[in-house]
Amino acid sequence: MEKQLEQLRAQIDALDEQILKLLNERAKLAQAVGHVKGGSLIYRPEREAQVLRRLSEANAGPLPNEAVRLLFQEVMSACRALERSLTVAFLGPEGTFSEAAVIKQFGHAVVRLPAESIDEVFRQVERGEAGYGVVPVENSTEGAVSRTLDLLMQTPLKVCGEVMLRVRQQLLRRADTEGGPEGLDGIERVYSHAQSLAQCHEWLNRHLPKAERIPVVSNAEAARLAAQDPKAAAVAGEVAAERYGLAIVARDIEDEPGNTTRFLVLGPEDAAPSGRDKTSLVLSAQNRPGALLDLIAPFSEAGIGLNRLESRPARSGAWEYVFFIDIDGHRSEPRVAAVLDRVRANATLFKVLGSYPVAV
Ligand SMILES: O=C(O)C(=O)C[C@]1(C(=O)O)C=C[C@@H](O)C=C1
């Protein structure tokens, strides 16, 4: 057996050297691309999406596509960092799902800048303190993040990407609590972000009906508080458990098994076409019956899929609404551009938030 192991490991060593050589060749090409680009934007979300999609299609296994995606996102992250270092702002503190979304989209070779609020993420990118920002926009269980929608209306920034993150909530508690970390005994308080509490509403009703639910600014803050209080637990992600040294006493406690949060990437420009894109818009119609349906009719007439419609009060105090709409396609495709012109002509407010690749 020893002999066999040795032989196999020698083969792995030889392959690792080849992979390393190839990776460095790739890195040199990325550096050359960086020189060709000159002073223009280094981060090209459409190209990164194309690379990841192509490799998923080419993948013959046994590595699953998810692993291939992760590995190559890190390869591109490292290559990109050779061209220029990127700073990405997100809703902090460290250990939140927003940080996990940054890593999923940009890899580890970026500077991650935790911000205190969604407003602050927008401001940091607007002021140029961060090149990009990542903000949550909707959750499959809880719906829209209204603060993000309100800020999107005003910002000069563009949406240049989206990230889909499967959100798994854990119940965390100090490992040294009475009865050991296995039980729920003695939990009088549960801290978490209001959205996470809502996502685990049924589970908490069933397992901790008497515990007080205390909403705090973030899941990471909840974990920090639970680490100081033996009678408390926190609902948060696995990264928060690691960061605050807490035990996971119940796993995957979200009520919806497919619980997913969608994040948007904000930057100075939107993305070029990648072949599979979305466009986000905000518009408003006159305040009369049927006005919205008339306004969006051109999309279905042109066969353009409308995959999200969210309304927010226009803050005019007159029961007027603005509508956030995501459509299939890139704003530069002639078919899409023609319909956008038609819709713009009839809208009282019209803003293209950006076109970007569908999440990979
Ligand atoms: O193709 C480019 O424009 C590159 O800079 C190379 C590369 C890559 O490593 O593949 C790196 C950064 C970009 O965001 C996209 C792709």
What Rg is obtained from the alpha carbons, in whole angstroms? 23 Å
Reported by name, the CATH topology of the largest domain is: D-Maltodextrin-Binding Protein, domain 2
> Which descriptor suits the 3D outline?
globular
| CATH superfamily label of the largest domain | Periplasmic binding protein-like II
- CATH level 1 name of the largest domain: Alpha Beta
Mean pLDDT: 93
Low-confidence stretches: none
Which small molecules are bound? prephenic acid
Separation of the first and last Cα atoms:
42 Å
CATH architecture of the largest domain: 3-Layer(aba) Sandwich
What is the tally of beta strands? 15
Strand fraction equals: 25-35%
Structural class designation: alpha/beta
Count of the domains:
3
Residue share in helix = 40-55%
- Report the order of strands and helices: HHHEHEHEEHEEEHHEHEHEEEHEEHE
Helical stretch tally: 12
Write the layout of secondary structure elements.
Layout: H1 2-37, H2 45-58, H3 65-83, E1 87-91, H4 97-106, E2 111-115, H5 118-126, E3 132-139, E4 143-144, H6 146-154, E5 158-166, E6 170-173, E7 189-192, H7 194-199, H8 201-207, E8 212-215, H9 219-228, E9 232-236, H10 238-244, E10 247-250, E11 260-267, E12 277-284, H11 291-301, E13 306-313, E14 321-328, H12 334-346, E15 349-357
Parallel strand pairs: 1-2, 1-3, 7-8, 7-9
Antiparallel strand pairs: 3-4, 3-11, 5-11, 6-9, 6-10, 12-14, 12-15, 13-14
Helix pairs in contact: 1-3, 2-3, 11-12
Bound molecules: prephenic acid.
Function: Catalyzes the Claisen rearrangement of chorismate to prephenate and the decarboxylation/dehydration of prephenate to phenylpyruvate.
Keywords: Amino-acid biosynthesis, Aromatic amino acid biosynthesis, Coiled coil, Cytoplasm, Isomerase, Lyase, Multifunctional enzyme, Phenylalanine biosynthesis
Protein name: Bifunctional chorismate mutase/prephenate dehydratase
